[in-house]
Amino acid sequence: MNIELAQVPGIEGDLDANLGLALAYIERAREDTDLIIFPETHLTGFAEQGAAASRAISPNDPVFHTLHQAAERQNLAIALGFLERDDADGCFNASVLITPEDGILLHYRKTHLWTDERALVTPGDRLVCVEWRGRRIGLMICYDLEFPETARALATLGAELIVITNGNMDPYEPVHHHLARARAIENQCFVAMANRCGTGAGYTFAGGSAVFAPNGECLAQLQREEGSTHAAIDFSLNRTARGTYDYLADRRIPLVDQNDAKDQRIRHFQLPDTDASPQ
To answer: Which of 4, 205, 210, 230 has the CB geometry, 3.0–4.6 Å to 221, for a possible disulfide?
Structure first.
């Protein structure tokens, strides 16, 4: 699988501009790209006090039809984030995997909320991955990366590639770089992280988008500037990494997953009800 990381800035609340930038990167993606990854909440911008629900959009918004059409034209999948409006349950920080075959195939709501968003959005209640074109992909969002349980749950679900839509800002760039590498090593799978760059919502974003192999090797990396980078994923390296010892097989703390009732390609962990505030 060939993946591309789009390290781009965003404009809070400007759906048209953010969509236009995403489409530009999709249209000029390399011919052999199978999956292109964008940052956290790229379409809508971040949740801010007084501007979370007003920026949020439904997964049924026409913008996703436009992105599906672009995925079909380029024959690639798209992972990107947005603030999601759910009339029944509120506002979420969400990411989707859009494929040429299915449109939105996988939909994930961020389960671990950063301090500044806990009063603005609702935490998600499950961790998800899906099989696409014979490979199993899991989704995470930004602060999720800082909890080893999140990636371990996805690896237990069979994820061969963990995709992180990221919105990491200064001064935390080294934290996410080191943790993404660690998550690849400890789960013996690939990790691909696309981070935001530029400024917005009162932050300076750190860039540093990267792809890590199961042995921790950095296959591709960007610095702080806007741009894209490409990496070829050889999934046989997952098996090679587990050849001498297999962390998933050797662990003694079990995790039990569930198959999705509507689509057997999707597997998930249902999380217990929790308060968004830290314990």
So the answer is: 210
User: Choosing from 40, 84, 117, 131, which is the catalytic residue?
Assistant: 40
The amino acid occupying position 118 is: R
Sketch out the chain's domains with CATH numbers.
Answer: 2-243+258-270 (3.60.110.10)
Report, as an integer, the average pLDDT of 188-202: 98
From the list 4, 91, 131, 142, the catalytic residue is 142
* Cα 142 to Cα 40: distance, rounded to the nearest angstrom: 7
Catalytic residue among 110, 160, 189, 197: 110
The residues facing 204 across adjacent strands are 199
Alpha carbons 11 and 164: distance in angstroms, whole number: 20
pTM of the model: 0.94
- Overall residue count recorded for the chain in this entry: 279
Does residue 117 sit in helix, strand or coil? helix
CA atoms of 141 and 114, how far apart (whole Å): 10
> Which amino acid does the sequence have at 48?
E
Q: Which of 201, 220, 217 is nearest to 209 (CA)?
A: 220
pLDDT score for 256: 63
Where helices occur in the chain by DSSP H, the ranges are 15-27, 62-74, 148-156, 173-187, 236-241, 247-250
